[in-house]
Design a protein that fits this description.
The complex is a heterotrimer of chains A (346), B (297) and C (275). Chain A has 346 residues and is of the alpha+beta class. Helix content of chain A is 25%, strand content 35%. In chain A, the strands form five sheets. Chain A has a six-stranded mixed sheet, with helices on both faces. Chain B has 297 residues and is an all-alpha fold. Chain B has two domains: 47 residues, no CATH class; 233 residues, MetI-like (MetI-like fold, Orthogonal Bundle). Chain B has a two-stranded antiparallel sheet. In chain B, helix 3 packs across helix 13 and helix 8 packs across helix 10. Chain B starts with a helix and ends with a helix. Chain C folds into two domains: 54 residues; 205 residues, MetI-like (MetI-like fold), CATH 1.10.3720. In chain C, helix 1 crosses helix 13, helix 4 packs across helix 10 and helix 10 packs antiparallel against helix 13. Chain C is globular, with a radius of gyration of 23 Å. The chains are: A alpha+beta (346), B mainly alpha (297), C mainly alpha (275). At the B-C interface, helix 2, helix 4, helix 5, helix 6 and helix 8 of B face helix 1, helix 4, helix 5, helix 6 and helix 7 of C.
């Protein structure tokens, strides 16, 4: 089966070290998401796997044979691009058939394959139109169709949803996930959007400055981040961080408030609390002065400051009110990090 | 090596890119570099109609350049002609562009017709104007007669004070549309919101032009002028058909003179020296202009 | 601002535009009329503005005497050299854009070759043609026009190819095309409009050339521009032939301006203005 192994991949642009010693395995059939802030090297890595970018060092194997030196067309991968990369001078049908024609597939097979892909993606009615006559979402489907008609070992997605508006994005996300379940192929998906990463991935590879920060299933990364960077990257609104002193089982906040129920040994930590770890509670030990309330419907986000540190709490819509509010904290779900290195302390 | 592996080798970016560009570099070297080398060699030899001496004879042809008054006159003609024709074309082209910038029914039809002179061969333009200015059966004198109310019989290509204006008219007729088109395109791209903002701010016409319009059209204008200036500097065809440099050497430009020396008097070596002088001057001017443009930016 | 467009200002503008257009078209009109006038009308004083009948005898003469051969020569040399220059220049442009061959400088060097006045290189090329016996051959003229137009084509196509999204090519590579096939099946179709516009200009440059044809041809391969000037005799000038031959040279150009308007600006400004 198509098992992709990357071994110590490096990429330099001149003196700039874009990808640093990246190694990972992707077993056949997995949906892997490469995620990270812009400039973290995720797209470079994907394009290197496709063969569009020459790597400076390292080795890649697919099905056990090295593909490092192969031209893109000899790697048997399919790719969906951010800008869709549809050929404006070809009809939707010919766009989808392009890769099959390039590989000299018999016409009869092309027809069945294209019809199947169009069916799957619900674009059968548009086959004879041209890309300029389609909406953004339809173009996106055509681009995906062009990839899935091919019987490729790997399906690569380079930020395929970033040009769509928010509503369409949610719908397409779901469809891509369904598509993966239906096809059972290996998907490698690049995005900067942590929600896409969380919702789509069976496994997330989180990159920072060309290096892997953490690899694992989405909930693992979310609940047990290796460090503060990973913790901050996943989750929206992001995790709150504050320097605290733990003493005799209590967290002492910089403004002097003490929150009991902490199992950490005494010392100074960076404390990470996700907004949803707060609850409005008359008996809560934390007194916060909510400044700004941002309702989103069911939940509301309340902003407050602890000794100048900006904090955000996700509260029940009706419980979030301006002014002094008592909050309780789910202590056992909060995280503690080494203030110097940012590493998580279990 | 199998055909397949050969095609894959040729396809490697490091090989492929040179494969693609090799023919172009080859032909350009053929017409760009070979003639220059040939010129350089010839200019130091002694080849003319009267004999060929292939040994190197030093820089005497270059020395001769300095004392050649006909050469410097032709150069002066060229420079003056360029200096007069270029601003005329620019201003007329600009005015024309302003006219067409506003709403005008049948605009693209008018533009197509106005462009015709620029597209046709300069030889045809020259012939046409030679026809137009003929003192007897050309319509120019006839029209002037109607305007003046008496018989006008100007000898356009014989009278010394008329022959340059005649060429100028032909040249301006042929190339004003070029300037018009460039400036029209540039003016269409001026930010309308900036103009509206200036209007609201109560800017004067002159200030709007200086501060908004001119900076916006400057890059295109500079390029258009550069293209025209280089063309004007090597003007040959129009003059060839209208006067052949005459009467006498009245309308001899540097290109006409160089042609005469090379192909009528067969002073091969000397013509090579002249060619080098022209290339030298052009290089200086172009480099200087590009510097200026860079400074402006 | 007050909308005066419907009023006299609009009429004034139209009248002005009409007048100016007449000024620019009148010489061409005169040329066309000369070609269909009778000899008496050509030499009449005062000049005749509209011939009593359209006589095409001067055209017939051109074809009967074989002078029209020169137009055929122009067509062949300009046509074939355009095809060659397009092929050579487009591949070079693709190399420069996609692989940054030679960096920024190579492109500048190539376009700078266009700045050299033809007269400066005419004589060495003449010598070269003499020694290789290319004088007065269409083959020689084709090669020369090709070489002279390659810089223009390279420069223009560089601009058009830069406008093609890189992802289209990458997508084709991943889908299994070779680099040659990408050039053929993605780049060329994407640059179709640019190719067309550039080819037309390349054709015009070769078609309108006079100096090289004058120097490098004698009789067999003369082009129409040389033929036109040949009718200016020292004793007599054959105006009807000049008119007819010139019109044969102008007609294709009329077709060009009629069909090509939206490409002309970019083509003429060496890509400085993107229409």
């Amino acid at each position: 089966m198509a098992n992709l192994k990357l071994h110590n991949i490096n990429k330099y642009y001149g003196a700039y070290h874009a990808v640093r010693d990246v190694s990972f395995d992707i077993p056949a059939g997995e949906f892997v998401v490469l995620v990270g802030a812009s400039g973290c090297g995720k797209s470079t890595l994907l394009r290197a796997i496709a063969g569009l970018e020459e790597i400076s060092g390292g080795d890649m194997t697919l099905r056990g044979t090295s593909i490092t030196r192969l031209a893109p067309r000899d790697r048997n991968v399919a790719m969906v691009f951010q800008s869709y990369a549809l050929y404006p001078y070809l009809s939707v049908r010919e766009n989808i058939a392009f890769g099959l024609r390039a590989r000299k597939t018999p016409d009869a097979e092309i027809n069945t394959q294209v019809a199947w892909a169009a069916e799957v993606l619900d674009i059968s009615d548009y086959l004879d139109r041209y890309p300029r006559e389609l909406s953004g979402g339809q173009r996106q489907r055509v681009a995906i169709g062009r990839a899935i008609v091919r019987d490729a070992d790997l399906y690569l997605f380079d930020e395929p949803l970033s040009n769509l508006d928010a509503k369409l994005r949610d719908g397409m996300r779901e469809e891509i996930k369904k598509l993966h379940e239906k096809l059972g192929k290996t998907f490698i998906y690049v995005t900067h959007d942590q929600i896409e990463a969380m919702t789509l991935a069976q496994r997330i590879i989180l990159l920072k400055d060309g290096q892997i920060e953490q690899v694992g299933p989405p909930l693992d990364l979310f609940e047990r981040p290796r460090n503060a960077y990973v913790a901050a990257f996943l989750g929206s609104p992001p995790m709150n961080f504050i320097e605290v002193n733990v003493s005799a089982g209590s967290v002492i906040l910089p403004d002097g408030q003490a929150l009991p129920g902490c199992a950490m040994p005494d010392g100074i930590y960076t404390w990470g609390i996700r907004p949803e770890h707060f609850t409005a509670d008359e008996q809560g030990p934390l007194l916060a002065k909510l400044d700004v309330i941002q309702p989103t419907g069911a939940r509301s986000y309340g902003t407050f400051y602890i000794a100048g540190n900006h904090m955000m709490a996700e509260l029940d819509a009706h419980a979030a009110n301006h002014g002094q509010t008592h909050l309780s904290v789910a202590m056992d779900r909060t995280l503690f990090f080494d203030p110097a290195t940012g590493e998580a302390i279990p | 090596m199998t055909a397949n592996s050969l095609s894959r080798t040729l396809e490697r970016p490091g090989v492929f890119k040179y494969l693609l560009i090799a023919p172009a570099v080859f032909v350009i070297l053929l017409i760009g570099l070979y003639p220059l080398i040939k010129l350089a060699v010839t200019s130091f030899q002694d080849i003319s109609m009267f004999g060929a001496d292939y040994s190197f004879n030093g820089a005497k042809h270059y020395v001769r350049l300095f004392g050649d008054s006909r050469l410097w006159e032709s150069l002066l003609h060229t420079v003056l002609f360029t200096a007069v024709a270029l601003p005329i074309e620019l201003v007329l082209g600009y005015l024309l562009a302003l006219l067409f910038l506003e709403r005008l029914p049948g605009k693209s039809f008018f533009v197509a017709i106005i462009l015709l002179p620029t597209i046709i061969s300069p030889i045809v333009a020259g012939s046409t104007w030679r026809l137009m200015i003929d003192q007897r059966f050309g319509p120019v004198n006839q029209i002037l007669s109607w305007i003046a109310g008496r018989e006008v019989e100007l000898l356009w290509n014989i009278q010394t004070y008329l022959v340059w204006p005649a060429i100028m008219i032909a040249e301006v007729w042929q190339w004003t549309p070029f300037m018009f088109l460039m400036l029209y395109a540039a003016l269409s791209n001026v930010d309308k919101e900036q103009l509206e903002a200036a209007q609201i701010d109560g800017a004067s016409w002159w200030m709007t032009f200086r501060r908004i319009v001119l900076p916006a059209i400057m890059p295109v204008m500079v390029i258009a002028m550069l293209i025209r200036a280089l063309d004007l500097f090597r003007i040959f065809d129009i003059i060839w058909t209208m006067t052949q440099g005459g009467p006498g050497t009245m309308t001899e430009t540097i290109s006409i003179y160089a042609y005469n020396i090379a192909f009528r008097e067969f002073e091969t070596s000397y013509s090579a020296a002249i060619a080098f002088l022209v290339i030298f001057i052009l290089t200086l001017v172009v480099v200087w202009l590009l510097r200026r443009v860079e400074v402006e930016r | 601002m007050i909308r005066w467009d419907r009023g006299w200002r609009l009429y004034l503008r139209v009248a002005l535009a009409l007048g100016i257009t007449l000024v620019f078209v009148f010489p061409v009109y005169w040329l066309a009329m000369i070609s269909v006038k009778s000899p008496d009308e050509i030499y009449a004083y005062p000049p005749v503005w509209f011939p009593s009948e359209f006589r095409f005898s001067s055209y017939v003469t051109l074809f009967r005497d074989g002078d029209a051969w020169a137009v055929w020569n122009s067509l062949i040399t300009a046509g074939v050299s355009t095809v060659l220059a397009m092929a050579i220049g487009t591949t070079a442009a693709y190399s420069i854009v996609r692989f940054r061959t030679g960096g920024e400088n190579l492109a500048i060097w190539i376009i700078s070759q266009r700045m050299i006045p033809p007269i400066c290189v005419a004589f060495p090329i003449f010598l070269l043609f003499v020694s290789w016996q290319w004088i007065d051959t269409r083959f020689g003229l084709i090669l020369l026009y090709t070489a002279f137009n390659v810089p223009y084509v390279t420069w223009m196509m560089r601009g058009y190819i830069q406008d093609i999204p890189l992802e289209l090519e990458h997508s084709a590579l991943v889908d299994g095309l070779s680099r040659w096939a990408v050039l053929r099946k993605v780049v060329l179709p994407m640059a179709r409009a640019g190719l067309f516009a550039t080819a037309v200009f390349t054709f015009i440059f070769a078609w309108n050339d006079f100096l090289f044809a004058l120097v490098l041809t004698k009789s067999e391969a003369v082009t129409y521009t040389v033929k036109v000037t040949g009718y200016f005799g020292s004793q007599s000038t054959f105006w009807s032939k000049i008119g007819a031959m010139s019109m044969l040279g102008v007609l294709p150009m009329m077709f060009v301006v009629a069909t090509m308007q939206r490409f002309i600006v970019r083509g003429m400004s060496l890509g400085a203005v993107k229409g």
